[in-house]
Amino acid sequence: MTQPVSTSKVTGPTIPAWTEQPDPRQLLSERDPEIYAAIESERQRQTNGIELIASENYVFPEVLAAAGSVLTNKYAEGYPGRRYYGGCQYVDVAEKIAIERALALFGAEHANVQPHSGAQANAAVYMALLAPGDTVLAMKLDHGGHLSHGFHLNSSGHYYNFVHYGLDPETEQLDYDLIRQTALEQRPRLLLVGASAYPRHFDFPLLRAIADEAGCLLMMDMAHVAGLVAAKLHPDPVPYCDVVTTTTHKTLRGPRGGLILCRKEHARAIDRAVFPGIQGGPLMHVIAAKAVGFKLAQQAAFRRYQQQILDNAQALSDSLQRQGLRSVSGGTDNHLLLVDLNPLNNEAITGKVVETALDNASIHCNKNMIPFDKRKAMVTSGIRLGTPAATTRGMKQGEFERIGGWIASIAHDPKDSALQESVRDEVLEMVQAFPPPA
Ligand code: DSN
After folding, report:
1. pTM of the full predicted structure?
2. Ligand 1 atom nearest to CA at 247
3. Alpha-carbon dihedral sign for residues 228, 229, 233, 236
């Protein structure tokens, strides 16, 4: 293990420790009241509502401290021990610790902690493993995939030949026979799995077998479920995939950023693709914050937290189904559910309308296309709900039963503004007991 570097090794006069510095929040409020007001309003919004956006969370306070640290001042292009700048001895320590902890957490052979985001992580993998024009097989965006999985306006769709698979119309789950058949027909260089709106598990042994039969590499984008994977409450992609990418800020509760895990044989190509391939200077404050998050994710309390996320998703799904709202695929195995609004039999009730009505009641979620949706992405027939953020605040099944009741009543009558106001009052009262981590 890397040993922490003592600050006593820094030469020069002693200066007050970080904890003895003036409160930067106070300085900000005095010197830039406009930006302070925007931040403070957002903090109030995050506190006084219920966050059900499946990709959002409240970071650990220690993560926030590292992300707001002086490491943001440092340029460190390159990798630990091989930088293009002097003075990198302390940021090297932070990056080495982040790598060691990522490897320990996920049991991977190699980790690159520098991607600024999940989309950057994916772009780097494509650059490392593909040539322009190569074929990649990935999940359709409107069946739950992601923009960086070959959407035509994304760089992935611009540079590579993405072919997409969809879900089985009956089960609304992955159709492994279809994936196999398409892989054998298309002979892709890469089979990509992972999604931003898929409530079910992935069968990694089967996907590995399909990739081997088709002679291609296998990649998982586990951004949504990384926390569940870390807690061993979701099938583990790492033993089966050549490359696994993730964000660090969703179920994982770290800072906003990306991470690539891969087999040793791809390590050099991946590192070169991240830097200097698609990025310049790494965000060392964010890398330190990732290290803090990876440490916290190894603790028993984190596993209990992830289990509660799952229990809460079941409670929410059950509550909604009892009140006439159908979950796509009949339920959920993970932290999110997709609610189909079509059974309400009202053309005026769309994802967009329900998202706005819930926002008015301080319940925040996003409109989302459901598989085989007849409406467009800016309207949609569904909403996506996730439990990670409210679970971080300590809410349990009882609270999610109540939340399900509020969502159902508003979805049945999204024009009823008096109802939205009364729910907002109840939400405000309930959240007082669950302050976000400060
Ligand atoms: N935008 C994220 C989500 O909401 O799922 C994925 O990048």
Report:
1. 0.96
2. 7
3. positive
Predicted confidence (pLDDT) per residue in 209-223, tens digit: 999 999 999 999 999
Q: Is 263 labeled as catalytic in the residue annotation?
A: no
- Please state, in angstroms and as integers, the Cα–Cα distance from residue 433 to each residue in 5, 50, 90, 427, following that order: 40, 12, 40, 11
Catalytic site includes residue 256: yes
d(CA 141, CA 159): 17
CATH for 70-296 is: 3.40.640.10
| Residue extents of the structural domains in the chain | 70-296, 300-431
Shortest-distance Cα residue to atom 6 of ligand 1: 196
Identify the CATH assignment for 300-431 out of 3.40.50.1820, 3.40.50.300, 3.90.1150.10, 3.30.70.1490.
3.90.1150.10
195 CA to middle of ligand 1, Å? 9
Identical topology for domains 70-296 and 300-431 = no
Mean predicted confidence (pLDDT) in 307-335: 97
| Per-residue model confidence (pLDDT) at position 9 | 63
Give, for ligand 1, the residue of 117, 146, 156, 221 to mutate: max count of ligand atoms closer than 8 Å to Cβ. 146
Tens digit of each residue's pLDDT (9 = 90 or more) over 265-278: 999 999 999 999 99
